[in-house]
Amino acid sequence: MSERSAVKSALKAQRIETPSWGYGNSGTRFKVFAQPGVPRDPFEKLADAAQVHAVTGVAPKVSLHIPWDRVEDYAELAAHAHGLGVEIGAVNANVFQDDDYKLGSVTHPDAHVRRKAVDHLLECVDIMDATGSRDLKLWFSDGTNYPGQDDIAARQGRLAEALAEVYARLGDTQRILLEYKLFEPAFYTMDVPDWGTAFAHCLTLGPKAQVVVDTGHHAPGTNIEFIVAFLLREGKLGGFDFNSRFYADDDLMAGAADPFQLFRIMHEVAKNGGLDARTGVAFMLDQCHNIEAKIPAVIRSVMNVQEATAKALLVDLDALGAAQQSGDVLAANAVLMDAFATDVRPLLAEVREETGLNPDPLAAYRATGWAEKTAAERVGGEQAGWGA
Ligand code: LRH
Ligand code: MN
Predict the structure, then answer these.
(1) Which ligand is nearest to the CA of 288?
(2) Which ligand 1 atom sits nearest the alpha carbon of residue 184?
(3) Could you give the CA distance from residue 312 to residue 316 in angstroms, rounded to a whole number?
(4) SS3 for 146?
(5) For ligand 1, what atom is nearest to the CA of residue 216?
(6) What are the residues whose beta carbons fall under 8 Å from the beta carbon of 17, sequence distance 6 or more?
(7) Which ligand is nearest to the CA of 20?
(8) Ligand 1 pocket, 268 CB below 6 A?
(9) Helices 361-368 and 294-313: crossing angle, nearest 10°?
(10) Residue 124: in which H helix or E strand, if any?
(11) Cα(213) to centroid of ligand 2, in Å?
(12) Is 31 exposed, middle or buried (0-12, 13-18, 19+ CB in 10 A)?
């Protein structure tokens, strides 16, 4: 198989999971701007996600967030997804919007509050049983705002206890994906602030616990691809929450703010076996489209991840290895920069045509008239959002 056709088959096999909340309204503490045609329920969110998969061919999974996507019958929701040509992916728990969780959820000083939080996490595993999902994604807003507010070590003990109980409930093929975040909504300590803390808890839990790298959750200047290479080597990279940022957890479109960083990350993924489905890395988007049209934004983001992946797959690893081995710093760097400078859009257009798709997914989407159709039909009811 020529290098080019190997790259094309890897691109055809790529799978990018889109977030149900990316199709709903979202914003900042200053304002949430509504948009015409926004879904009112998880069924309509899945219909929008199916539009993304229809024009990209690589986005067949949709992450849910509970309770934002709470329904009576999750098997019915999964069947609805199937009918649309998509399936339900990771289930995201939410222990960050209930008044009881002001001082923490699974780390709260009060055992009753911890019990309530763990019960929600266990409910999410029940939902996974109904939807056939593999991944329980856990992000905790837990933390403190002032020195002395609570005992840092004691909170870690409470977190470990809660995670162990949920881990014991997992089915054989199910996983915990533990997500870390440096700050926000807490501003002194977060109980899972960085990859090291997440990694340590996942090591303690066992093989069914892995780390999620949200690209917006690091201190400015953090070398995220180092974390990726390290976790892949340890077999503890469970997935990504792709988005991009200029400052903090901006949750902008993946690759929009820093396409070179996304390329460097995908280079470490590609060269360390992370694109191999057996490695089990979940490539998920976690974004909010506060001012831009939501479905085209998700399509653009999927294309940005595809472009970063294509460039990473074009890195001449033999030349890179030779330059690294001989200590030729400039030559080694040039190998990567050459790949990054490659215009891979014609290659991706070819991949799409070979899979029977329009080479231009955004043009294909516009041609469906879906935006106009949903704006006309989805009148009344309450548009979906974060319900915060
Ligand atoms: C937290 C986070 C987490 C989700 C939420 C939508 O910042 O990245 O992954 O639960 O965004
Ligand atoms: Mn995230």
Answers:
(1) 1
(2) 7
(3) 9
(4) coil
(5) 8
(6) 59, 61, 62, 63, 89, 90, 282, 283, 284, 285
(7) 1
(8) no
(9) 160
(10) helix 111-131
(11) 8
(12) exposed
3-state secondary structure of 87: strand
Token digits of residue 270: 């590609």
Instruction: Indicate if ligand 1 lies below 6 Å from the C-beta of 243.
Output: no
CA of 16 to the centre of ligand 2 (A): 14
**Is the CB of 251 inside a 6 Å radius of any atom of ligand 1?**
no
Instruction: Give nearest CA residue, ligand 1 atom 9.
Output: 139
**Average pLDDT, integer, range 41-65:** 98
pLDDT tens per residue, range 226-235 = 999 999 999 9
| Closest listed residue to residue 107, CA positions, set 67, 183, 184, 162 | 162
Closest ligand 1 atom, residue 214 Cα: 8
Residue 307 has pLDDT above 70, yes or no: yes
Distances (CA, A) of 334 to 152, 320, 324, 328: 45, 9, 11, 10
CA–CA dist 254, 205 (Å, integer)? 30
Tokens for 234?
A: 């340890």
Amino acid at 288: C
267-279 tens-digit pLDDT: 999 999 999 999 9
Ion ligand 2 nearby residues (CB, 5 A): 214, 241, 286
Residue 278 CB-density burial (10 A; 0-12 exposed, 13-18 middle, 19+ buried) = exposed
**Atom 1 in ligand 1: residue holding the nearest Cα:** 139
